[in-house]
């Protein structure tokens, strides 16, 4: 069976949920490895034109929610600055390179994920005197619409350690973006793509925060998370397939537009937006059951 081509937007900004697993699902990632993986993600986030909106690092896989920039908006000066800083090169040396090719590479989601995975796997294999593949099959990605679908997906990945029974509350888990934001360590994280209404919705999905609660720019309600009856919403306590396998997730119009945009990649005869069960106003390109 031919694999589905990745839905990647060209020439404009886009949001994605990325998931990648270790080979064989082995539990290779302890605290030391997760710290290193996060360092690698942050480092390449400064090199590539990819903003990190959210992450969750588990023992055998990781989740990222990212925004990629449009190549059209990237200047030569930005490329020179980022490449020279990352590799420790003289800016004049970088200016002599093919900046057009670098622009395409540094705005490409697949190139970013490939760089992260390759850098980390080389470190891990050296550290453990190991050979062979560290990561399993190619990473999965879902194209997200900004706003509601983006907020929903962020909430979903924050609750991963709750779903697996590691913690009762997501901020108690060290290796997700929520704990970093609440600890004041989320300077490398972006809210780009969500207004305060979306941030409020995100917090409501994670903690069932009342709509009247006041949030600051980090997503905290009135400066802190209170302990009163804030349990994660029940749907996100289970694996929800459309967040990882839906290919495209957003409003009905957004999904229908994807059929036209990616007509060469989609082999389905049916051109429908499938309602994402349990999530109001969100549709998926694939018809999937809510949980698996």
Automatic annotation (TrEMBL):
Q: What is this protein called?
A: REP element-mobilizing transposase RayT
The transmembrane residues are none
Gene3D superfamilies for this protein = Transposase IS200-like
From the UniProt record, which GO molecular function terms apply?
A: DNA binding; transposase activity
State any GO BP term from the record. DNA transposition
Q: Name one Pfam family in it.
A: Y1_Tnp
- Transposase IS200-like domain location: 11-160
Source organism (scientific name): Desulfacinum hydrothermale DSM 13146
Against InterPro entries, the record matches this protein to: Transposase_17 (IPR002686), Transposase_17_sf (IPR036515)
């Amino acid at each position: 069976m031919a694999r589905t081509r990745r839905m990647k937007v060209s020439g404009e900004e886009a949001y994605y949920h990325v998931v990648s697993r270790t080979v064989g699902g082995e539990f290779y990632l302890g605290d030391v490895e997760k710290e290193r993986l996060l360092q690698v993600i942050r480092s390449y986030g400064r090199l590539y034109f990819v903003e990190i909106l959210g992450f969750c690092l588990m023992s055998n896989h990781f989740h990222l929610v990212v925004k990629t920039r449009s190549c059209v908006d990237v200047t030569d000066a930005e490329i020179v600055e980022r490449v020279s800083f990352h590799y420790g090169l003289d800016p004049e040396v970088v200016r002599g390179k093919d900046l057009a090719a670098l622009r395409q590479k540094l705005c490409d989601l697949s190139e970013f994920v490939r760089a992260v995975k390759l850098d980390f796997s080389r470190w891990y294999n050296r550290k453990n005197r190991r050979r062979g593949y560290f990561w399993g099959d190619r990473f999965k990605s879902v194209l997200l619409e900004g706003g509601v679908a983006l907020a929903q997906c962020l909430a979903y990945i924050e609750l991963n350690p709750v779903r697996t029974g590691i913690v009762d509350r997501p901020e108690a888990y060290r290796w997700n973006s929520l704990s970093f934001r609440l600890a004041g360590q989320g300077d490398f994280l972006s809210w780009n793509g969500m207004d305060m209404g979306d941030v409020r919705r995100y917090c409501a999905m994670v903690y069932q925060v009342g709509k009247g609660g006041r949030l600051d720019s980090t997503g905290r309600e009135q400066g802190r998370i209170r302990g009163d009856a804030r349990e994660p919403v029940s749907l996100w306590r289970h694996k929800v397939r459309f967040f990882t396998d839906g290919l495209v997730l957003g409003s009905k119009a957004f999904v229908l537009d994807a059929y036209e945009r990616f007509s060469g990649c989609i082999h389905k005869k049916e051109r429908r937006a499938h309602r994402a069960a349990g999530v109001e106003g969100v549709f998926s390109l694939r018809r999937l059951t809510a949980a698996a």
